[in-house]
Amino acid sequence: MKKYLFISIAALMMTALLNAQSQYKAGDIAADFSLKNVEDKMISMSQYGDADGFIVAFWCNTCPVVKKYDQRLQELHAKYAPQGYPVIAINPNDPAVSPGDSWEKMKETAAAKGYDFEYLFDETQEVARTYGATNTPHIYILAWKDGKLVVEYVGAIDNNADDASAADKKYAEEALNSLISGEKVAVAGTRAIGCTIKWKKG
Amino acid sequence: MRNLFVIIILLTGGIASLTAQKIEKIGVAELEEIIASQGDVLHVVNFWATWCPPCVTELPYFEKLSNEYGGKEVKFILISLDFPSQIESRLIPFLKTNKITADVRVMTNIDYNSWIEKVDSSWQGNIPVTLLFNNARKVRHFHPSEVTEKELRDLITRFNSN
User: Fold this and answer.
1) CA–CA distance, B54 with A87 (Å, rounded to integer)
2) pLDDT digit of tens for each residue in chain B (162 aa)?
3) What is the CATH number of the domain that holds A31?
4) Where do the structural domains in chain B lie, given as residue ranges?
5) B89 CA to chain A: closest CA distance, Å?
6) How large is the ipTM?
7) Which of A21, A160, A194 is nearest residue B126 as measured by Cβ atoms?
8) Tens of pLDDT along A160-193?
9) Chain A residues within an 8 Å CB radius of B58
10) Number of domains present in the structure of chain A
11) Topology (CATH) of B23-159
12) pLDDT tens digits, residue range A150-160?
């Protein structure tokens, strides 16, 4: 009996480890969520009646790389929301570890920067874990297909965090343009340096 | 009087040379060279940036252990991912203020997707991360997050077979 208990505990731990490392990739079905925005309203993707998909951006108030991309995320929303792909930004950082990423500070950030996309708080970090997000910024482009949200792209917005004008590979835009014109997304995954998500301790 | 003048010149010259700390800039080729190094020594390669608070927290542990080993047995390389535009304005002053004497190099290729996978296939680009390896002994370990001083010591003890 003891042996079986041990084996099942070991199996559970293995599953937990595997889950912790797995990340959505192109072709996976993404889970919807219900998260609080900066106006204290719960938002989920299924509420957007006319969207063809989403640009889900794991985001925060504090990360210097996020700040570098701030204007670019707003431009993506301005350009692609009218074409069916609005931005939804999600802050998964634990304010106990990163005080600048509290919900109150999110409200300040959204107001100061004039975000016109939803900025949501992943307080339990469950969405970030489910999606397998590792850092901010981390972009997931999703598209509705047969009532399901299919992951089409995971990674960076482009290939130059420091200087938007010097970026010569605009991964997110290229993926969105392909989706909108009904073509296959050519580059479905990239990696980029960012700030590690501030996970809850213990 | 003339001597005083000479002394002032020498002093200012000395200060100027102290200020002009140099840092080795590397690209993808140099990074690949580091990772492929065949020397029979444990390499500890840390990826960090001054803008990354957990990186800055753990940096003194690397500095301390680097001094303890004094270049023998274990080779430490701290690869900064600070933005190239901030090397002079931010990275070098940071190294001076924090008296970092360890081997710091700065990665100037910021087309991250072109090289992150070369470091480790599981790395998504979060920092800090640390790669430990001794290619001559086929030892390799990728630590995907920050370390405490004790964790770093334990990792080095575990993988240093010399």
Assistant:
1) 29
2) 556 555 554 454 444 444 446 799 999 999 999 999 999 999 999 999 999 999 999 999 999 999 999 878 899 999 999 999 999 999 999 999 999 999 999 999 999 999 999 999 999 999 999 999 999 999 999 999 999 999 999 999 999 976
3) 3.40.30.10
4) 23-159
5) 14
6) 0.82
7) A194
8) 999 999 999 999 999 999 999 999 999 999 999 9
9) none
10) 1
11) Glutaredoxin (3.40.30)
12) 999 999 999 99
A156 in a domain, yes or no?
yes
A119: exposed, middle or buried (C-beta count within 10 Å: 0-12, 13-18, 19+)?
Answer: buried
- In chain A, what residues touch B117 (CB-CB under 8 Å)? 191
Question: Is residue A9 in a domain?
Answer: no
B148 CB near a chain A CB, below 8 Å?
no
Alpha helices in B20-162 (DSSP H): 28-36, 53-69, 92-97, 116-119, 149-159
Which chain B residue shows the shortest CA-CA distance from A191?
B113
> Domain range spanning residue A140?
24-196
Reading the block at residue B78, the tokens are 């701290």
